[in-house]
Specification:
alpha+beta; Alpha-D-Glucose-1,6-Bisphosphate, Chain A, domain 4; seven-stranded antiparallel beta sheet; 7 strands
C-alpha cells in the first residue's frame, strides 16, 4: 500500500481476483456498485473513457489508463461536474488505482485515490463514500451479485446509506 496523504484502503473479499476485477470494471460492473447511470461499456479497455452520471447535469468522466485483468486498474478523472460537492470538479486530475492481490481463497483490494487528500474540500464526503462503496457495495456485488449503487437522478451525498 502506498504511503502518501492520498486516500487509501485495503479490503478483503471472499472471491478470486478475477471475480472482484469483473465486479469493479466490466460493462455493468460500475453500474452494479457505483451508479446506475453511465456509459461503462469501455470500463476495462485502456485508452477509452468511462462516464458515470449522478443526474442529468452531474457526472464524472475517467480515462482508463490501465486494465490488467485480474490484478490492476487505473483510471484518471478528466472531467467532473458534481453540484453535491463543495467544489464541483475537485477530482479532475486525480487517479483511482485498484490493485488486486490473491489471498488464500479470497482477494485483497489495495485501493488508492491519488490526489484525494485532506486538503480537498470534498475529502470527508469522499472518504465516507469510498468506505461505503468499497466495504459494502462492492462486497455485496461480489458476494450476492447485487451491489448498492446510487440510483441515477438522486443526490449522491444524500443517498449514502448509513451503517
Amino acid at each position: 500500500m502506498p504511503t502518501t496523504d492520498s486516500f487509501t484502503a485495503a479490503v478483503r473479499y471472499p472471491a478470486a481476483p478475477g471475480a472482484v476485477y469483473d465486479a469493479l470494471a466490466t460493462p455493468g460492473g460500475t453500474g452494479g456498485w457505483w451508479t446506475t447511470d453511465g456509459d461503462s461499456d469501455a470500463a476495462a479497455i485502456p485508452g477509452r473513457h468511462i462516464r458515470l452520471n449522478w443526474s442529468d447535469d452531474d457526472h464524472i468522466i475517467f480515462f482508463v489508463d490501465a486494465a490488467e485483468r485480474p490484478t490492476a486498474l487505473r483510471w484518471t478523472c478528466v472531467a467532473q461536474h458534481d453540484r453535491n460537492l463543495p467544489q464541483p470538479d475537485e477530482w479532475v486530475g486525480t487517479s483511482l488505482v485498484f490493485s488486486l492481490v490473491a489471498d488464500g481463497e479470497g482477494t485483497v483490494l489495495e485501493f488508492e485515490h491519488q490526489g484525494l487528500t485532506p486538503k480537498l474540500d470534498c475529502f470527508g464526503a469522499c472518504r465516507d463514500g469510498w468506505d461505503f462503496f468499497l466495504r459494502r457495495s462492492v462486497r455485496q456485488l461480489v458476494e450476492l451479485g447485487q451491489g448498492l449503487p446510487y440510483e441515477a437522478g438522486t443526490s449522491p451525498v444524500s443517498r449514502l446509506p448509513r451503517p
